[in-house]
């Protein structure tokens, strides 16, 4: 039976919301009608409801590909809190017995969350082929371009998985995808006729700070000044694990604020604990590598600081997207020295030598267990069935893209008129008029004053929650609208 627009509206209202946010209606209507869809919506715009609502209306199973275990846990918890019990995650945290039990009972589920690597397992593909897949979702779809070639080549095999399981429709969602990345997503997921909804990346409530300092000592001193002047939860993004650890300790000593570090070197329990401590307000400052942030839904982050140059404007946008998700004004700052640009350039140009690829392919067993990221990446490609020449071509193409991404980042930093305009042009978003008081540039006392004096219609997250509809609104950080 066809799903009518009235059915969509009824489902929305049953969830306790009054209206859609921009783009949600178009994406949901296309998906329930059986069309493939690419949706690009800014952070905080409610991407998750674009598949959660259709998943409730459609029969069969909705498969959601997530890049991180933390994202899976978060989305499972949200759905369960909203009353949906037929939701599971297949991931490496399950013991073999529980894994097999979940796999066996997938026909009873409505939502399955899974990583791209797990989808490569033959037994999972066979099980999915036996089920009616109503919707196949790739969340954070920019990872196909940004993570696939660099260190998670399983993303490059998602199109083959889609061909095998034959879902009724495919939905790719992301907050950061310029035209080239959009084209790559559509091509990799084998959906050339996909419909698209491309929203603007602009977040008017965010100040885009860019400041250059002479050396690392001046950078830390400026960080302390920012922490003293901008009150509220703060994320400090660091370029390395060691830097995250050192900066967290120095912040606690210099300011007395509760600070901790977060990076991929921590065990899963420690990462989860620190994430929850930050979200719940037990930590004032979290110093993290890029391993933290994607999908983290803390509404009141007031300051996001980069102590290194992001590899691309896509990475930059993902990170600053953690700020001001409640709609209130928040400050983001990129602090850099001249040496930071040189380091970022080196990262952009780095790739394995052709001889290294050929050596690993010739004797893979000799390299198993070697603590080298490039070697482990080549082994991952080989495990997925890529030929050595394909690996060389993928990595060479990715190097070209990385250099172009670095060049775009430099253009953003160097612009003397309006950093925001450069940012918006990169993502083909409509331009806006530069606001001398609240737009971009150095974070002055006037900027902080404009932040503090600005009223916001955003929800009061401390209000008492009295019924299930209000609980659902609170989960998605909205008031009367669908949230993320």
From TrEMBL:
Keywords: ATP-binding, DNA-binding, Helicase, Hydrolase, Nucleotide-binding. The keyword DNA-binding applies. The keyword Thylakoid does not apply. Pfam families: DEAD, Helicase_C. Gene3D superfamilies: P-loop containing nucleotide triphosphate hydrolases. It comes from the Bacteria. PROSITE patterns: DEAH_ATP_HELICASE (PS00690), HELICASE_ATP_BIND_1 (PS51192), HELICASE_CTER (PS51194). This is ATP-dependent DNA helicase RecQ. Residues 222-368 form the Helicase C-terminal domain.
């Amino acid at each position: 039976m066809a799903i009518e627009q009235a059915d969509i509206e009824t489902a929305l209202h049953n969830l306790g919301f009054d209206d859609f946010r921009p783009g949600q209606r178009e994406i949901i209507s296309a998906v329930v009608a059986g069309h493939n869809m690419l949706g690009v919506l800014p952070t905080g715009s409610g991407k998750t409801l674009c598949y959660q609502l259709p998943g409730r209306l459609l029969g069969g199973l909705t498969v959601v590909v997530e890049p991180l275990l933390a994202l899976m846990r978060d989305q499972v918890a949200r759905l369960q809190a909203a009353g949906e019990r037929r939701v599971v995650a297949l991931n490496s945290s399950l013991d073999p017995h529980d894994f097999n039990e979940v796999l066996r009972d997938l026909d009873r589920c409505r939502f399955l969350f899974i990583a791209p690597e797990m989808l490569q397992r033959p037994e999972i593909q066979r099980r999915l082929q036996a089920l009616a897949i109503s919707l196949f979702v790739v969340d954070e779809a920019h990872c196909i371009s940004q993570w696939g070639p660099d260190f998670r080549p399983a993303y490059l095999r998602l199109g083959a998985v889609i061909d095998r399981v034959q879902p009724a429709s495919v939905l790719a969602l992301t907050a950061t995808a310029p035209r080239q990345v959009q084209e790559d997503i559509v091509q990799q997921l084998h959906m050339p006729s996909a419909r698209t909804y491309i929203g603007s990346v602009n977040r008017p409530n965010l100040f885009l700070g860019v400041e250059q300092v002479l050396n690392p000592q001046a950078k830390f001193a400026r960080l302390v000044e920012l922490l003293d002047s901008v009150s509220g939860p703060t994320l400090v993004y660091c370029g390395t694990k060691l830097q995250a650890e050192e900066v967290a300790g120095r912040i606690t000593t210099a300011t007395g604020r509760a600070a901790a570090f977060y990076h991929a070197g921590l065990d899963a329990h420690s990462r989860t604990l620190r994430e929850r401590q930050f979200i719940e307000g037990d930590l004032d400052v979290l110093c993290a590598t890029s391993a933290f942030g994607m999908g983290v839904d803390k509404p009141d982050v007031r300051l996001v600081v980069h102590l290194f140059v992001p590899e691309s404007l896509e990475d930059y946008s993902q990170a600053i997207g953690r700020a001001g998700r409640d709609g209130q004004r928040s400050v983001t700052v990129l602090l850099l020295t001249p040496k930071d640009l040189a380091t970022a350039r080196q990262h952009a140009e780095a790739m394995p030598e052709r001889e290294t690829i050929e050596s690993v392919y010739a004797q893979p067993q000799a390299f198993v267990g070697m603590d080298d990221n490039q070697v482990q990446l080549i082994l991952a490609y080989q495990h997925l069935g890529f030929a050595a020449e394909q690996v060389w071509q993928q990595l060479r193409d990715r190097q070209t893209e990385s250099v172009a991404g670095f060049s775009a980042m430099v253009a953003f930093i160097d612009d003397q008129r309006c950093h925001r305009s450069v940012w918006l042009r990169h993502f083909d978003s409509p331009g806006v008029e530069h606001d001398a008081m609240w737009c971009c540039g150095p974070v002055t006392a006037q900027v902080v004053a404009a932040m503090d004096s600005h009223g916001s219609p955003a929800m009061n997250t401390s209000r008492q929650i009295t019924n299930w509809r209000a609980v659902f609104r609170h989960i998605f950080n909205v008031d009367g609208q669908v949230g993320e």
